[in-house]
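Assess this one:

_____
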Amino acid sequence: MTTLGKLGIWRRRMDGTDGLAEIEAAGYSAVWVGASPSVEQARPFLAATTTMTVATGILNVWQHDAAAVAAAHAETTGAFPGRFLLGLGIGHPEATAEYKSPLRVMRAFLDGLDAAPRPVPRAERVLAALGPRMLALAAEHAGGAHTYFVTPQHTSAAREALGPDAVLAAEVAVVVEPDAEAARKIAREYARTYLGLSNYTANLQRFGYTEGDIADGGSDRLIDAVIPHGTAEAVADALRAHLDAGADHVAVQALGHGPSPVADLRAIGAALE
């Protein structure tokens, strides 16, 4: 399987590749390209780096044809061998008018990747997964799972669901800011979108968070658990909690200091060593 390493970053595709060379030099081994990229939209991130694995985080299966994705995967892995990982996801009910039967649609897409003239190997694809059924599908038909907006408790449950061999890559948004109230303000601005999406809120409720925790931008308890903040050392401890809970890889999304917060990421990486 494409190697992710322990520590990566998560970045929206529209934020571009600025700073990636410095982040790569700081020891980050992967970049997850977010905001529903195509395979082609991930290629500039490969061109801008030399050793980092580039993963789509995630390619939305409602928006693509499986055979075309398989062909683009084959072309990209040919140009950048061993450095591209296809992250697939079903997206959100609120964003897709025809959203229905997500497991059936994902299975059909995976079957299409398998049936393509140049199939995508299972080890070179991971699924966005939160609930037990999608995690089970990831364990059976992909190399593993990519989780997002989760707590270490979810990471522990996801590892149990996936079994010992599948890859578990958890996105973790963080704020390097020692002032708790200032950090929570940044975190709530980011969390607003996700606390309005049913797949994320249902997942939080599975782990004991209430409608009161979810309302009004999120309770301090929820915000602190999902979006750790503080000094770089405190943030590193929170990332370590995901690794200790069973994640193979954490994809850090550093908030509050622009789309390429090199200084924050460098400090986190140093503290995590």
User: Anything to note?
Assistant: The chain has a mean pLDDT of 96. Strands lie at 7-12, 30-34, 53-56, 59-60, 84-89, 125-128, 144-147, 167-176, 229-230, 249-254. The two ends are 24 Å apart (CA to CA). Residues 213 and 221 are 7 Å apart (CA to CA).
